[in-house]
Design a protein that fits this description.
six-stranded mixed β-sheet, nine-stranded mixed β-sheet, globular, alpha/beta, Rossmann fold, 15 strands, 9 helices
Length: 336
C-alpha cells in the first residue's frame, strides 16, 4: 500500500522520457483550452459574488486544505461571509450537493474536513459553477466563494488565484503523464500569490521573480483522540510505545517525517490519496498506538481503535499574503 504517484515522476528517464511526447500533446490541449477561456471562445461563468481559487499545478498533496482554513479565517476577520466549494474526490455525490452531515464516504474526505475546520457552508461537485450556485441558493448569506483545488476549472471565473507549491511535488517538471504537472511551471507567474510549502529550488525562484511568494509551514503540537475528540495529548505520551502512522494523503512521507521530528519512532503505513478506509485497514494496530492525519480521521472515526489519534495542523503563512488578497478583493467590492 503506497502513494499512487509513480516513482519515475521524480526522474527524466525511463518511462518519463518515453511518455514525454504524450505530455507535449497534453500541454498543447490544455493551453488551447486555457486560451479559449481567456479569449472568450469558451464562456467562464461569473458568479454574483467574488471567487478565490486555492489550487496548485501538480498532482499530489501540497497543503491546500490548511491554506483554505487560513484563508477563510482571514476573510471572516475582514468582514466577509465565505462559503467553500470542493470537488469531493472519493465521495459518491452524483451531480452537486451542499453538505448536510459528516459522511465522508458520501461527500468526500476533504469537503467534510473543510466543513469541520472552517464551520462554513460547503458544496461539492465536479461542476464547480453548479456547486457554487447550489451553495449560494442554500446559503444566500455567503458573499464570497473559496474554491478548493480549482485552478484548472476555468469554467468558474475567478477574482483571485492562490497557488500552493511544494517543490518536492513538482517532481521532474514534466506534464502529465510523463510527470506530475497539470500545467507548466510558467502558469505560476500569472497567479496573485504563490504560497511556498517548504523551500523552492533556485530555478523556480528565478522563474517567479516579480510574483509574490510567501512561505508556509504546517504546525501542530497535540494529538486528538479519533473516537473521543475531547481528549488530547502530546508526543511525549507515546514515547516507549510502538506507534503506527497511517496516511492516505498525497505525500504520506511528509506526515511520517513530521512525526519523527517530534521524537517518535513510527511504523509507516502509506495508503493512496483519498483511500476509502475500512476497519480491516487498521487491524494491524492491536494494542499499539495509531496516529493519522485529520483528513484520514474523518473517514476512520466510525471504526477506529480506541488508541487512534489524529494530528491536527494549521498553516503558518508569512506576512503579506492575506493583505494582498484582501486588497484585491476590496478593490472590487461595492461600496455602501
Amino acid at each position: 500500500m503506497a502513494s499512487t504517484a509513480p516513482a519515475w515522476w521524480q526522474r527524466r528517464r525511463g518511462w518519463a522520457r518515453l511518455l514525454y511526447p504524450v505530455s507535449l500533446l497534453f500541454f498543447l490541449l490544455s493551453a488551447i483550452r486555457r486560451w479559449s477561456y481567456r479569449l472568450g471562445l469558451l464562456n467562464a461563468e461569473r458568479l454574483p459574488v467574488p471567487v478565490v481559487i486555492v489550487g496548485n499545478i501538480a498532482v499530489g498533496g501540497s497543503g491546500k486544505t490548511p491554506v483554505v482554513k487560513w484563508l477563510v479565517d482571514a476573510l471572516r476577520a475582514a468582514g466577509w461571509r465565505p462559503g467553500v466549494v470542493s470537488r469531493g474526490y472519493g465521495g459518491r455525490v452524483d451531480g452537486v450537493a451542499v453538505l448536510d452531515g459528516d459522511d465522508a464516504g458520501l461527500f468526500g474526505d476533504e469537503p467534510v474536513l473543510l466543513a469541520r475546520l472552517t464551520a462554513c457552508p460547503v458544496a461539492v461537485g465536479r461542476d464547480r459553477p453548479a456547486a457554487a450556485r447550489a451553495l449560494l441558493q442554500a446559503h444566500p448569506e455567503c458573499d464570497i466563494i473559496v474554491s478548493d483545488d480549482g485552478m484548472q476549472h476555468y469554467r468558474l471565473a475567478r477574482d483571485v488565484e492562490i497557488a500552493v507549491v511544494d517543490d518536492k511535488v513538482l517532481g521532474n517538471r514534466y506534464l502529465l503523464p510523463a510527470g506530475p504537472l497539470r500545467e507548466p511551471l510558467t502558469r505560476l507567474t500569472g497567479v496573485d500569490v504563490v504560497i511556498a510549502h517548504g523551500a523552492l529550488s533556485e530555478p523556480v525562484w528565478q522563474m517567479l521573480a516579480g510574483t509574490p511568494v510567501v512561505p508556509m509551514r504546517l504546525a501542530g503540537d497535540r494529538f486528538v483522540s479519533v473516537t473521543e475528540p475531547g481528549r488530547s495529548c502530546t508526543a511525549a505520551d507515546f514515547r516507549g510505545r510502538r506507534v503506527h502512522a497511517v496516511a492516505g494523503i498525497g505525500r504520506p512521507q511528509r506526515f511520517f517525517d513530521q512525526l519523527r521530528a517530534m521524537g517518535l519512532e513510527v511504523i509507516e503505513h502509506p495508503f493512496p490519496d483519498h483511500h476509502c478506509f475500512s476497519a480491516a485497514d487498521l487491524a494491524f494496530v492491536g494494542e499499539d498506538v495509531c496516529l493519522m492525519t485529520s483528513k484520514d480521521a474523518v473517514k476512520c472515526r466510525p471504526f477506529a481503535p480506541d488508541d487512534a489519534w489524529e494530528f491536527p495542523v494549521q498553516a503558518i503563512i508569512g506576512s503579506g499574503a492575506a493583505e494582498r488578497i484582501l486588497e484585491k478583493l476590496n478593490n472590487g467590492r461595492p461600496t455602501a
